[in-house]
Every structure is written in structure tokens, then in C-alpha cells.
Amino acid sequence: MDKNQVQPPKANILLVDDTPDNLRLLSAMLTQLGYEIRRVINGQTALKTAQAAPPDLILLDIMMPDMNGYEVCQYLKASEKTRDIPVIFISALDEVLDKVKAFAVGGVDYITKPFSEEEVFARVENNLTIRRLQTQLTEQNVRLQQQIILSEASQKARQKAESAMRLSQFYLDKFKYPIYFVNSDAQFVYVNEAAYRTLGYTREQLLSMTVHDIDPNFPAVTWQSKWQEFRYKNSFTFESTHLTQDGREISVEITINYLELDGQEYHCVSVRNI
Questions:
Q1: Domain 123-273: which topology?
Q2: Angle at CA 81, nearest 5°, toward 147 and 146?
Q3: Which of 38, 43, 151, 207 could form a disulfide with 72 if both were Cys (CB 3.0 to 4.6 A apart)?
């Protein structure tokens, strides 16, 4: 390949912040990492920009004049064209109430000031990966449903679904953070390489286990009561503890996203050490 050939950007990100210094800092960080960046300084311009050319992800400041980040996010989620764009909130505040409100209006994550380049990259890449997975699974699900309608043999349609799942698993095995697929019975139906290496088990061992085996905060009764809550919130982030194979406790931040593939419900669980 020609060394002078320009590499396409990894993703298109919209930065929304009324403080120019914050925009310059975040833009420099993310551009250096290979992202295409657009910058705006208020909520009204952000909504127009997102409608005109929807980005892959939005970094949205909470405290802005005229229209704050919560209001901007609500407008984004009310529009069919922009409702699926992941929104990561930016705030100098770190109060529990702000986090709860951010998730309640549709945010998927948050970053606090002052910015850490490592944290910004981790949260951006994590949510872009989840978004790519959701898009991939949605597209595959549409194709599979069409194939089921046209196919005379339901077994062939089932094989197509299994092939689509294997394709997603291959992609996620390359991701450096632990990813699990969990069903309504709290059983692991898929774990990526980072997951079983972090916990010290083999993949086969984890696939014979449940959430209750690695997370003391999720006994069976808790998982059953939380399943519908996670399902209807679509995306949910919280802190917990995971137990490794050798008995160590790891403090983690967990993001759960609801997924549906070929009529089966799953939660995609991504994990980051804290």
C-alpha cells in the first residue's frame, strides 16, 4: 500500500462545549488518535449539525448557557435520525445526581474534567465498539429475518444466525476490554479473550458459569429483578466487584447494553477496571 495514502478516520465525533479551551484540548487528543472531529460551542448548533450529518458519537458538555447538555440529549433522543447516536457527557461535576440524570436522559457514559487522555480514549473507544456491535447485529438480524421468510428450511436460517454470532465474537475477541454476552438466566453465552484472561478462567469454564459466580453483588434473585430494568433502559452503567479464579477482588465499572439477535435477548456487558 502507498505509504502516502491517507488512512480513513476511525470514527466521526461531534464535540459540544461552550469553552474553547476544552474543545481544543479534546480535539487535539482525539485527532491524534485517528478520529475525525467536528466542534460546536452551543446546543442549538449541535442539534443542527447532528441532524445534517449524524456523527458516530457525541461528547456533550452538561453546563452550557441557553440549552444545557441534558436538554440537548433529550432532543437528540427524540429524533429518529439521531436517537441511536451514543452521547458521552462532559462535566466538571462528579455528583451521583448528575450521573443518574445523565443516564436517565439517554447518555451512555460520562467524562469528568480535568481530562485524562487515557480515560477519554477508553470511554470513547468502548462506546464506539458497542455502537458498532449494535449496528452490526441489527443489520445481521434484518438480513436473517429476510432469509427466514424466503427460506424453505428453518435449519438453514438457524445456521445463518449462528454464523452471524460467530462473526461478532471474532470481532470482539480483538477488543482489549472484557466483553460478555449474558442471557436472562444470567448465563454467559459468549466471553471475549480479555474477559477470561482478566478473570483467570478458560473460555470453556466461564461459559459454564453465571454472573452470580463472578459478581457477589448479583445473586440470582437480584439478576432476575434487574433484567427488565436493564432491558428497558437499553444502556446502564454502574460500579461493582468481580472475583477472579484465584480469589482476588477487582473493582470494575460495568456498562450493560440490551441486544436482540434472531429473537433471542441478551445483555452485552463491557467491563473496565477502576
A1: Beta-Lactamase (3.30.450)
A2: 5
A3: 43
Number of residues written out for the chain: 274
Q: What is the DSSP letter of 79?
A: S
The sign one gets for the Cα dihedral 37, 47, 119, 187 is negative
- Written as one letter, the residue type at 50 is A
Residue matched to cell numbers 449494535: 134
**CATH number among 3.30.1360.120, 1.10.260.40, 3.40.50.2300, 3.40.50.150, domain 12-115:** 3.40.50.2300
What is the chain's pLDDT, residue by residue, as a tens digit (274 residues)? 455 555 677 899 999 999 999 999 999 999 988 899 999 999 999 999 999 999 999 999 998 988 999 999 999 999 999 999 999 999 876 655 577 888 889 998 888 888 888 889 988 988 898 888 877 777 777 776 666 666 555 555 455 455 545 545 556 767 788 988 888 888 998 888 899 999 999 989 998 999 999 998 888 777 777 777 776 666 778 899 999 999 999 999 988 888 776 567 888 888 988 8
Q: Are 93 and 62 in contact (CB under 8 A)?
A: yes
Domain extents in the chain: 12-115, 123-273
Written as one letter, the residue type at 174 is K
Give CA–CA dist 87/231, Å, rounded: 18
